[in-house]
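sorry for the late reply, my laptop died twice this morning and i had to redo everyting from scratch. anyway the thing you sent over, i finally got around to it. pasting the sequence first so we're on the same page, its 349 residues, then the predicted structure underneath. double check i copied it right bc i was rushing
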Amino acid sequence: MKQALAIFLLCLTQSVIAQQAVTRLGADIQYGFIIPHAADLIPISQSSPFGIRLSYDRMRLDKKRWDACNCFHYLGVQLSHYQFGNPSVLGHGTTVSTSFEPLLFRSKQWQISLATGLGISYLNRVYDEVSNPENTFFSAPLSFLIFVSPRIQFTLNDRWSGSMALHYNHISNGGQRQPNRGMNFPTLGVGLHYFLQHPNFPDHQANEVPDRWRPYLEVAGTMKNNPNSNNRSPAAGLSLGAYRQVGSINAFGGGWEATIDHSLYPDTERNDLINHGLYISHHFLFGRFDFNQRMAVYLGKPKNYQPDKSFYQRYTLLYRLSDHLQGGASMKVHGHVAENIEFRIGYLF
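ok and here's the structure:
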């Protein structure tokens, strides 16, 4: 009787665990190409990156985790290794990253998801004026990886699934060292996943879409490399904007932002270190997560700062810490060239 009771309790415990969380182990291989975002990069972009990635993902199924993004979602860590197809110039990179992967569609056999992630990469071949002058993609052995990966997953049986994903990868040092042109390399990946528990999705209901504008204020800061010295100088920003939700996960908005950049001194007078502009934005809202993309036009900037650029983009990932306070990071980009990564904190009105 005791043995039967023990077996029953064990089975019940496993059932509860399976209902509350799903653990997924995965491995995939990737193959792609390098985008030459400047004419002088074309010669060293004629190679094909190849990568292997191992992943650990966990998805909680309770209502509290659902409310975090109005969806079921994986939070995961990955270990990846990329060979860039040119060992003597580009070398290879090893990355540890974290990811957020909401499910956009699911049926009995299929799932469609969109993963975004951020990691730290170790690169064994970087720019050197004497020994490796061609590699202007990388200049710091420790750099950042940012990726966006739409994925299709198909069920093989209760424990196994296969997947195909398109990964858009970007590696740069976030403006901490020059040159910082960064590498953009899309890859196509195929993989296998093993589930420690079979997913049993409960039926949660999404929250109602708020019918109003959400004004916000953000402050940002980073330390940028000063091209005239080996030191880093502070750059601080202010953003004022608002957005309005138009669907369960989509919102549109706009605003104004300004940055005071001390890394431009002494080439620029101290009273002329500010650049500012207007932007329009699109927001993916997954509950407490806000992944937004901003397209901005400069209204004013120092003469020696990006003299041939009138527009820029900013990619921002924020997490709402309370009803009004949110924090995260953003990356400023001119075309395909990343300028810097900064930390942000904001207040939603």
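The longest strand covers residues 92-106.
thats about all i looked at so far, will dig more tmrw
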